[in-house]
Backbone:
């Protein structure tokens, strides 16, 4: 049995890391907003979904006017990614301005309910527009990257099977990693990143040190939503078919990843996302084998969440989180 | 020449009047102390000047410009910096970063500049770090640059707060109980530091303090609040002998001792 599990490891790692980077980038949006406002922005999954739709629409549009055959696919994808990121970033900023800022001093439960409300609103708006223009809310985008690469992992050691990579996997992986590195540099090196960390620790003191708190919060929402929207495009390119409800389960998993890594901690969200992705793929590949056929691959989520619960039992603050100290 | 003028400042929290019709004038480059028993409204007064609270009525003028109604970050940009009674550093950030946050408004580096490592940004970053280093050196924390703020000793945290407040390049520095919890030696060092800062940065200092020895020694002007009302103001020797102040605050023992 062990041999068979080891054989699948290269493929599990490739699939898991790709899925994991998607979780990780979305988890960043949850964790950044939580770090600053202590708000779980449940609408973030829907921002991701909206990004997927904007991206697919743009790709279909570009195909329609013939750019797809004229331009290299990668240039096309980058253009779409940037446009989508800007649009979803503005969407996130707008949501903060209209729906969360007026509730800044309300009890914490109230913005949380608002966030859930906004996610329903976004789902229905997207569904309405999609049905109106396409006749169906399930949309399939153009197929940009069809190449398959075969990794000869068996030549490293005979205990591994060969693994296959779709070209789009590589693109998802690279883009997501670039976004994460970019964010890490932003947060740790730039003055707005530093202001963001300062606001997360003590909003009032930061404002007394010339930091414009509202601007920092708006920037946080812009960046988180832009990353989430761009990941939506990657998801659409990777999996082809999207519908207005993909944001729910993906958002939930990304939120889980953020909690797993320690909510409010940016590197924690990245780690949590990657870990959750790999665990899920591992379960999906091996669960049947491990349980002698009792549980099939469809129980992968149960497996992943069982790990989450176990981790939180022993380390409630998450893997990279700091234990909260009560303010006195 | 007055740098800060406060006219008839009143703050009400519901039915409670925290300060009532308080007026004062602060001369440029002076050291002024605001004293009074606990609950006299001193910190409320600071919070109104820095824009955290909006006064119920009254006017605050910084160099003849009205600053009440401004957001805290705009007040601090206008030139008022402060420290806190209960230390409020960014605990999880390094000593250097704490000071750099104080410089926020003077830095321009955006994401693109950093990513492309533009020479302008590199130069600015270097200068900012040098300036921060000088300020830390000034308060005697230069060798703790990369330490997390939370790991510093109590006295060092107080000095870091001062360095951070100086980083914004203020005209007026508000110190809220800077000597609280300090031993006599630390208090003496602090007194020297305040004098030095005033001279070198051409600062106007306003402090809230309970340590009467420090107050009498350092301040040129004293304002006494009691139950939100200004009951006296003047030179230290006038305040020392003012019967109203003695009654409200100092007590007869302090008069004999002084």
Residues:
């Amino acid at each position: 049995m062990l041999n068979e599990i080891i054989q699948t490891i290269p493929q599990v790692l490739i699939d898991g890391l790709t899925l994991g980077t998607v979780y990780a980038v979305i988890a960043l949006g949850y964790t950044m907003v939580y770090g600053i406002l202590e708000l779980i922005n449940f609408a973030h999954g829907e921002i991701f979904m909206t990004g997927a739709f904007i991206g697919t629409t743009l790709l279909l549009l570009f195909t329609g006017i013939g750019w797809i055959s004229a331009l290299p696919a990668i240039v096309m994808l980058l253009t779409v990614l940037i446009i989508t990121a800007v649009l979803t970033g503005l969407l996130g900023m707008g949501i903060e301005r209209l729906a969360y800022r007026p509730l800044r001093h309300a009890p914490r439960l109230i913005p949380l309910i608002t966030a859930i409300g906004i996610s329903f609103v976004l789902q229905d708006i997207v569904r309405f527009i999609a049905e109106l223009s396409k006749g169906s809310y399930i949309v399939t985008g153009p197929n940009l990257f069809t190449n398959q690469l075969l990794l000869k992992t068996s030549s490293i050691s005979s205990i591994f099977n060969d693994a296959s990579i779709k070209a789009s996997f590589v693109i998802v992986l690279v883009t997501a990693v670039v976004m994460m590195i970019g964010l890490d540099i932003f947060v740790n090196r730039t003055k707005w990143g530093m202001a963001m960390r300062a606001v997360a620790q003590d909003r009032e003191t930061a404002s007394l040190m010339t930091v414009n708190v509202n601007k920092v919060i708006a920037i946080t929402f812009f960046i988180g939503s832009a990353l989430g929207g761009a990941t939506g495009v990657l998801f659409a390119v990777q999996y082809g078919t999207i519908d207005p409800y993909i944001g729910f389960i993906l958002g939930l998993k990304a939120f889980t990843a953020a909690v797993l890594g320690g909510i409010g901690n940016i590197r924690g969200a990245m780690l949590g996302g990657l870990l959750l992705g790999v665990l899920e793929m591992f379960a999906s590949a091996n669960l049947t084998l491990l349980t002698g056929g009792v549980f099939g691959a469809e129980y992968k989520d149960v497996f992943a969440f069982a790990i989450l619960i176990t981790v939180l039992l022993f380390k409630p603050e998450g893997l990279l989180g700091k234990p909260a100290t009560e303010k006195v | 020449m007055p740098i800060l003028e406060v006219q008839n400042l009143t703050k009400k929290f519901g039915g409670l009047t925290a300060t009532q019709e308080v007026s004062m004038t602060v001369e440029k480059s002076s050291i002024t102390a605001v004293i009074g028993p606990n609950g006299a409204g001193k910190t409320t007064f600071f919070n109104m000047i820095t824009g955290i609270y909006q006064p119920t009525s009254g006017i605050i003028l910084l160099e003849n410009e009205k600053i009440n109604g401004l957001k805290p970050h705009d007040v601090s940009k206008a030139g008022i910096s402060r420290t806190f009674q209960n230390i409020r550093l960014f605990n999880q950030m390094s000593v250097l970063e704490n000071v750099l946050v104080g410089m926020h408004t003077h830095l321009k580096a955006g994401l693109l500049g950093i990513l492309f490592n533009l020479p302008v940004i590199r130069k600015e970053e270097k200068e900012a770090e040098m300036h921060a280093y000088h300020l830390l050196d000034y308060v005697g924390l230069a060798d703790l640059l990369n330490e997390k703020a939370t790991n510093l000793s109590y006295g060092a945290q107080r000095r870091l707060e001062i360095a951070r407040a100086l980083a914004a390049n203020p005209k007026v520095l508000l110190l809220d109980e800077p000597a609280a919890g300090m031993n006599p030696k630390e208090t003496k060092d602090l007194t020297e530091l305040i004098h030095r800062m005033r001279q070198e940065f051409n600062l106007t200092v306003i402090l809230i303090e309970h340590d009467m020895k420090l107050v009498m020694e350092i301040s040129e002007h004293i304002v006494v609040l009691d139950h939100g009302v200004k009951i006296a103001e003047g030179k230290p020797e006038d305040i020392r002998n003012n019967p109203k102040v003695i009654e409200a605050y100092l007590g007869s023992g302090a008069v004999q001792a002084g």
